[in-house]
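Structure representation:
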Amino acid sequence: MNPRVSLVIQGALAPFTLPMAESWAALDWVQEIVVSCWDTCPGAAPAHPRIRILRGPDIANPGTGNRNRQIVSSHRGLASVETRTHCAKFRSDQIIAAGELDRMYQWWCRHRNPAPMSSVYRDRIFTLGLYRTFPYHPRDHVFWGWWSDLNALFGIPLDPEAPNADYDARTRAETYIGQFYFARVDGRAARHAAAPLEYLVDAAPRRDEAMAVDAAWRELLFASFPRIQMKWPKHHLESYHYDVGATFGEYWSEEPLSGAPG
C-alpha cells in the first residue's frame, strides 16, 4: 500500500500559493498541508480543512539567497506536521499543478526504498535536480522523503554571514544547506563545511576534494525526479529552464514520469 504524505509549503505567500495548495488537498494521498510563512503575509484563510497556515516572525539576516529564511520556514513547517512519516517540502514561489504532483507521487512510490538504508538516514531524499559541478548542492525547490531525513536536512545552524552574492566569497545556498547533511555521513564533509573558503566556494583552492566526497555520496543521499512541469513566476518562467540548469551541471532522472502531464 502506498503511503500518505504530509506536505510543507514554505516561504512568503504568493497570490497563487493557497489556490495551488487547495488543489493539492483534493489528492487522496495527501495527509495534510502546512503552509509555513511569515507574520507579514496576507491574512488569507485556506478553503480546505487539511490545510493549515503557520505564521512566524521573519528573521533579521535572511542569508545569501534567502538560505536562512528557507531553513527557518522549512524547519518550522516540518515541526508542525501532525504525521511524521513521509513528507515533502516545496517552495512557495513556484507552481506545480495537482496532476503533475500526482505523477511525482506515483514516480516516488515506485522508486522509494521502504526499508531503512542506514542507521543515519532512512532513504534518499528526492529532489528536482542534482549537480555535478557544485559540492553538496541538491536543487532546493522540492525535497521529498522521510520526515526524519528532511528534519535533519533543515535542523541546522543559520548562516551568520551577511548576504553576499559573490560565490567566490560565499557558499551557494544549496551547498550551505547540503553540507551539513553530507557531514552526517562523512567526516571529510564536516571538515569542508568548517573551511568553506578553502573547499566550498566557487574559487576554493581545494574544491576538487569536496567534489570527490560529493560524488561518492550524492546518489546515496539524494535522488532526482525526472523533468517536471513547473512554473516559476518569480523569474517569469512558464516552465523551469532545464536548458539553463544543464549548463551549470544540473541533471535529472532519465526515466520519465508516467501518465499525462498535469
The two ends are 23 Å apart (CA to CA).
